[in-house]
Amino acid sequence: MIDIQNQRDDRNIDIDKVGVKDIRYPITVLDKQTKTQQTVALINMYVNLPRDYKGTHMSRLVEILNEHDRRISIQNFSDILSTMKKRLKAESAHMEISFPYFIMKSSPVTHSQGLMEYQCTFKGSLNKGKDLVISINVPITTLCPCSKQISNFGAHNQRGEVRLQVRFKKFVWIEDLIKLVEEAASSDVYSVLKRDDERYVTEKAYQNPKFVEDIVRDIARKLEHDPNITWFAVESENFESIHNHNAYAYIERDKEKVHR
């Protein structure tokens, strides 16, 4: 049969990324507490396409996923990218894997257990060198320092979200990144809270007021002192309870450039 993809193209234009998007696929990822965890991911896979070729063989990308027996981790991410480059005879390969990650979390007083969901993404590229970024979205509670200061009693609080992205030298646990973020919040968010827990969370937040600026600075300070982290970007967004807008702050640092 004629292979249309391998036919020459006369427009003389390279394509940076071509491939498949939004593959819904069951995967197994590493879990610090239970060793492994099964979840369902959305996967994007791309390679570059030189100007001489009309198209790429997209089905081969899905075949490569199947060959890894649903096991996707930070440790084999580079191997998958390398296989993509070799199998499709490409100069660069790119993959993004987004998935819900679940942690069994106990409430602070009654120790009632419930699963907390965190949205995670592994994003990597392999060209002349390799690049891998872990991204996590963590829900948090914040209490406004200004509201507490100017009020005779009470202060407005709200749920927020922190998005943290990191590059690193060695293996990083998702759980450790989540813990780092939650420790910077006015209070954690839980899936199960009894009345005693609600009282604890409310009072903890009141005693620990934070602006979005405080959140990103506290996280950045810890990451700047972590020798395993080479680059990070952290953003905090409050879904304000008394304003018709959200509050937002962002910090990005390339530690390797700073230390050159």
How would you characterize the overall build of this protein?
This protein is of the alpha+beta class. It has one domain: Urate Oxidase. The protein is about 25% helix and about 40% strand. An 8-stranded antiparallel sheet has the order 1-2-3-4-5-6-7-8. Strand 7 and strand 8 form a beta hairpin. The protein is elongated. The model has no long low-confidence stretch (mean pLDDT about 90).
Features:
single chain; 260 residues; alpha+beta; Urate Oxidase; 8-stranded antiparallel β-sheet; 27% helix
The biggest sheet, with number of strands, parallel, antiparallel or mixed sense and barrel status, is: 8 strands, antiparallel
Q: What's the number of extended β-strand segments?
A: 8
Estimated radius of gyration: 22 Å
Summed over residues and divided by their number, the pLDDT gives a mean of 92
Low-confidence stretches: none
**Which structural class fits the helix and strand makeup?**
alpha+beta
What is the gist of this entry?
The protein contains seven helices and eight strands. By secondary structure, it is an alpha+beta fold.
